[in-house]
Design goal:
- This is TetR/AcrR family transcriptional regulator.
- This protein has 198 residues and is mainly α.
- The chain has a single domain (6-193), classed as Tetracycline Repressor, domain 2, CATH 1.10.357.10.
- It contains nine helices and no strands.
- Helix 4 (56-79) runs parallel beside helix 7.
Length: 198
């Protein structure tokens, strides 16, 4: 068998570190996760971590990006099953909000992520979500379903509402009770964008 190419080895190392960090951050939280334990668990050195991610914060960024991208893909899959583009948009937002009930999402993305990495609206994964929402809103405006408002502004507000609802749920003492209230309010807010039908 030919030796692995350098790029494959680098990717394999990165994947091992992200996988181990994801489990450690979800179980123990960012602050309590030991980088020595994490690297030893996958048979690597701290040097490999620093070489690939710069530091512990860089590793958290990679883990958050991975989870957030998975969340967006899952929400999009749920939205694509809806009967209309409008209902799909609402279903995507509600699905994203509901994922705040998942322990890994709560701890890594919604609690530790903002505390360590700052404003989630500036994360690369959130920006790709925003682009997708803008495209959907532009299409709904063109179809006469949504009022002719600025598509980026509407999309930022919709995404911001879903993100803040998820943050609220994650920080709540009773996430399940908050979920129903958050999804109902999200749908009501979004409905203000609809063109009035006689």
């Amino acid at each position: 068998m030919p030796p692995k190419r350098r790029a494959e080895m680098v990717e394999e190392t990165r994947a091992k570190l992200v996988r181990a960090a994801r489990a450690a951050f979800a179980e123990k939280g960012y602050a309590a996760a030991s980088m020595d334990d994490l690297t030893a668990e996958v048979g690597l050195t701290r040097g490999a971590l620093y070489h690939n991610f710069g530091d512990k914060r860089g590793l958290l960024q990679a883990v958050v990006n991975q989870i957030d991208e998975e969340m967006a893909a899952r929400a999009h899959a749920i939205g694509s099953q809806a009967d209309s583009a409008w209902e799909g948009l609402l279903a995507e937002g509600a699905a994203y909000i509901e994922m705040a009930l998942e322990p890994e999402v709560q701890r890594v993305v919604l609690l530790d992520g903002p505390a360590v990495l700052g404003d989630p609206s500036q994360w690369p994964s959130q920006n790709s979500c925003l682009r997708a929402t803008i495209e959907t809103v532009e299409a709904l405006i063109a179809q006469g379903v949504v009022k002719p408002v600025d598509a980026e502004a509407a999309s930022r507000l919709l995404n911001g509402a879903a993100l803040n609802a998820a943050l609220w749920i994650a920080a709540s003492n009773d996430p399940r009770a908050v979920l129903a209230r958050a999804v109902e309010a999200f749908r009501c807010l979004a409905a203000g964008l609809l063109v009035a039908r006689d």
